[in-house]
Amino acid sequence: MLQSFDVLSSPEQAAGRVARLRARFDEWGVDAIAVPRSDEYLGEYVPECAERLAWLTGFTGSAGLVLVLRDSAEIFVDGRYSAQARAQTDASVFGYQDMVATPLSAWLETHAPDGMRLGIDPWTWPTGSVRRMEAALAKTGGSLVMLEHNPVDAVWNDRPHPPLGEVTIQPLDYAGRPAREKLETMAQAASDAGVRAVVLADPSSVAWTFNIRGQDLPSTPHPLTRAIIPAKGRPVVFIDKRKTGIEAEAYLTQLADLKQPSDFDDALRALRASGSVVMVDPDAASHAIPMLIAEAGGTVKQAQDPARLPRAIKNPAEIAASASVHCQDGAAMVRFLAWLDAREPGSVDEISAAQHLEECRRQMGETLQMPLKALSFDTISGSGPNAAIIHYRVNTTTNRRLQPGEMLLVDSGGQYVAGTTDITRTIASGEVPNEQKRFFTLVLKGMIAISELRFPEGTRGMDIDPFARLALWQAGADFAHGTGHGVGSYLSVHEGPQSISKRGMQELLPGMILSNEPGYYRDGAFGIRIENLVTVHEPREIEGGDKPMLGFETLTLCPIDTRLVVAEMLNSSERAWLNAYHARVRRELAPLLGGDPAAQWLDQATAAI
Length: 609
Known about the structure:
Blueprint: H1 14-22, H2 25-28, E1 32-36, H3 52-57, E2 65-69, E3 73-77, H4 82-88, E4 95-98, H5 104-111, E5 117-120, H6 127-138, E6 143-146, H7 151-155, E7 168-169, H8 172-175, H9 179-193, E8 197-200, H10 203-210, E9 212-213, E10 226-230, E11 236-238, H11 246-253, E12 257-259, H12 264-270, E13 277-280, H13 288-295, E14 299-302, H14 308-312, H15 316-342, H16 350-368, E15 374-375, E16 380-383, E17 406-412, E18 414-416, E19 419-420, E20 423-429, H17 434-452, E21 454-455, H18 461-474, E22 484-486, E23 495-500, E24 513-516, E25 519-522, E26 526-529, E27 532-540, E28 549-554, H19 572-593, H20 597-605
Parallel strand pairs: 1-5, 3-4, 5-6, 8-13, 11-12, 13-14
Antiparallel strand pairs: 1-2, 2-3, 7-9, 8-10, 10-11, 15-18, 16-17, 17-20, 18-19, 21-28, 22-23, 24-27, 25-26, 27-28
């Protein structure tokens, strides 16, 4: 199986590990250390060797940080992980902070001792965060100390080796644009900006630009690599040659010079020649990158990674490939849901559900000759009260059986060469209490509102986020995560700059793929989320209207559990959307199921209400 259910958290070891870290403070000339979840590539998902936050604290979530002072320590997480952080860590060692309400910089401004010297590894922090920490510390006479080596690595004696995943070439049928064309776009961006070169520090941007993929991470198929693309001349890709076989190396050397990752620092320093100006994205690049350029006498121009927006705006080939793989993934989901529905209530546990879903994806991939390459993230399989933990990761200790009258929340996705999927369904086991059905329907109303929405050009994600929450707000409820995130094309399942959230400043543009996933969570009781992926379509005329409007087309094809829907709470438009969606699901998935018993289940599950 691709997913492990081993217990990864070691809260009982945190006290000793924190003590070992503090023992080095005087040697490093610091009074505190801040350790983020991110690695040297600032990725959401990190290799085992970079799970520093988890190793130090026990917290295994994908976002957060810890601040270790001489006599205390604070873990900062957002609302998705507040319950998980407390469950996985030792409260006698750590305090807990909401990193949205009280970011680290705000905490430092009000709580840091006067003159505190805070040590950080500048390779694991973006420039914006560094500047905010510096400003906050300056108000109390403190300062940042840029450490030469990562402080956790200094005390992590059995740290795993860095990954050496094989690099593959992304077929043009799925990429849609040749790498040479993309490189010309990057070089032109450098020229237009008046810089000598662009540093692509985000591995997903390197993978997209060069049409390559990798296996360094369990869920995100990009190689951990960086690139420098000059306005004129040959690009340079910094990648361990042990990752490139004969075919990949021959392909890449036609496009760029290949150098070892250890050559990257010297290459940055070399950019200082002739007073060079170098473009660096302050949000995507480690702070150490502009530091090295500036220290060598070069000038840094802060600007958005020029591959980020083109990567987010999928071309027709990428959209067509994604639509195809969503049919396959949807058929696998139907097989899983039919299997689950046939089980006796109380006979299925969270791990067996996640394992069977993975096997359904694998079998469907073999049948349709589009193999499952990886999960796009560890499957969230939460029953009853566990579903209230927004990013719950089941393990052998927390595993529980789905009981009659409960709901199972399954948030999962697959990585296929043709695209990336992400879907959440909340499923009833037996007769579920009316209160839970009411909240399920409120969540569904929000999901439908986004699905049906039409909006003018220039609309941002933050402008439409309230539509997903309105029904819940009117019922005195809300959810503590964004409504939607961008999704890559056989890349990261969480891709920017687009999002549907309170902080979604990016204009929504045709070709972008986003999730649509409102939810509701009652601690200790139940959790609900319904998620489809959607793509932004071109402006279309509306009969009787004055101007064309953008909107969404739904990619995800899978039944929504109508046993949990209070039909009377849906208006005529919402009911029509749900029935039309289910008719489409049945029409497009039935041919893939053939004579499978799941086809009969699909007919029943998509019946009109």
